[in-house]
Design brief:
Layout lengths: L1 H20 L6 H17 L12 E5 L2 E8 L3 H8 L12 E10 L2 E8 L9 E10 L3 E9 L2 E13 L2 E12 L6 H25 L1
Antiparallel strand pairs: 1-2, 2-8, 3-4, 4-5, 5-6, 6-7, 7-8
């Protein structure tokens, strides 16, 4: 309960200041922060770093995370879904648009647009360089982006008995006022968990 009250208060503070920051942060940021207020208690009630065998696990903090999940599919199937970049738009909770700008062998330049509670109503565009090492590893790094100071990470697919372990290591540093970071981090962590669960379902169920 104390953590839930802190998140509720943080979301209210975020909503108030986002209204003052317009137009740097759009008016929709107020509605998004209010949505974040509703989502935050659910995030606060989760059990950090503990999950069932078939549920995503998440470790780390402050923009440095490792998420993993068991997926009951061959590595080739997991790789095929993971690298279906444009198909992720509208399917993953925060990816609203995705476009492959260029491909040079295993190097892909990808543009994505994000919109989620953790973006506080702002549509965030980013261009990433993806480096494929099929079918086991996919790394990415920010080329340019809105309100993003750092974004890089690595996906790995490790075969195990009965399937694979899908692992996502990410480093993300947004351009954000310090007082917004606690609620941002709660919402971002919830999004990471949700994304891993959705990927598992896509890989297993098609």
């Amino acid at each position: 309960m104390p953590q839930r009250r802190r998140l509720h208060a943080g979301a209210l503070q975020a909503a108030a200041v986002l209204a003052l920051l317009a137009p740097a942060w759009p008016a929709t940021g107020l509605a998004a922060a209010q949505a974040g207020k509703a989502a935050a208690p659910a995030a606060a009630s989760r059990q950090p770093l503990v999950a069932a065998a078939d549920s995503p696990t998440l470790s780390g903090s402050h923009g440095r995370y490792i998420a993993s999940v068991f997926v009951a599919v061959p590595a080739a199937r997991a790789w095929s879904v993971l690298t279906s970049y444009e198909a992720m738009a509208g399917v993953m909770p925060d990816i609203k648009e995705a476009q492959v700008l260029s491909r040079r062998g295993p190097v892909v330049e990808l543009q994505q647009t994000y919109l989620a509670p953790y973006t506080f109503g702002r549509r965030i565009k980013a261009v990433l360089t993806m480096r494929e090492q099929a079918p086991r590893q996919l790394s990415y790094e920010l080329v340019k982006g809105d309100m993003i100071r750092e974004l890089r990470g690595t996906w790995t697919i490790s075969p195990v008995r009965g399937g694979v372990i899908l692992r996502h290591q990410i480093q993300l540093e947004p351009v954000l006022p310090d007082f917004l970071r606690p609620i941002y981090e709660e919402l971002s962590e919830a999004n990471l968990r949700q994304s891993m669960g959705i990927l598992r379902k896509l890989m297993e169920n098609g």
